[in-house]
Amino acid sequence: MADQEEWSSNANEALNISFVQAGQQSPVKLSTFHPKFTYPIFGEEECIFGYQGLNITIRFAAHDLLPNLSVKYDKKFKTVNDTEALNIEETLKEWMPEVSFEPPAEFNHHIQYDTAASNWKPPGELVESYQSRGRNFEIWCADLIDPAVRQLIDRIQILISLFIEGGTPIPLDDADWSLAKWRIFFV
To answer: What's the CA gap between 183 and 180, in Å, rounded?
Structure first.
């Protein structure tokens, strides 16, 4: 059997998270970073078996938080008996909305040609505006029962498990969990 270390990748290093916006000809990255934790998704060892040169990228549109997943690698382990490479897309389906798995070209088109991006506002009502260090900020508030709020939370909540120790996603479709009691603030 193949050397396990040769075919294993550190999930924290292989996963890159970026926020992007429209550029001159293609989306540009505003910020790129690695997660603090990946054990909720990839197990206690935070290790992904079956790839060499693995690069997992989750990009978010800076304005509406639309996510997009891209998985690239140099080599993939060929299945031997019951030993196979982890199906990364299948693993992440539990953690990300379906729209995340659209082809990167569709995501890029959305970023480049979304005419609402330049004047996008969060859902809800503006409760405060202020300036700090020469920049303008706004605080918006909305109920979690609002479908636009739920869509934003659904798109971004994978970050809860990647950055908050023991954090779990909010159950947005659980009838016993009252969405009406929660107010969400956006800055």
So the answer is: 8
First to last CA, the chain: 52
> pTM for this one?
0.89
pLDDT tens track of the chain, all 187 residues? Answer: 457 788 999 999 999 999 999 999 999 999 999 999 999 999 999 999 999 999 999 999 999 999 999 999 999 999 989 999 999 999 999 999 999 999 999 999 999 999 888 889 999 999 999 999 999 999 999 988 889 999 999 999 999 999 999 998 887 776 566 677 788 899 8
Q: Which of 142, 156, 130 is nearest to 63 (CA)?
A: 156
Neighbours of 41 (CB within 10 A): 20
| 18, 31 contact by CB (below 8 A) | yes
Residues 6+ apart with CB under 8 A from 20: 27, 28, 29, 30, 59, 60, 61, 62, 111
**Any idea which residue has 């950055």 for tokens?**
163
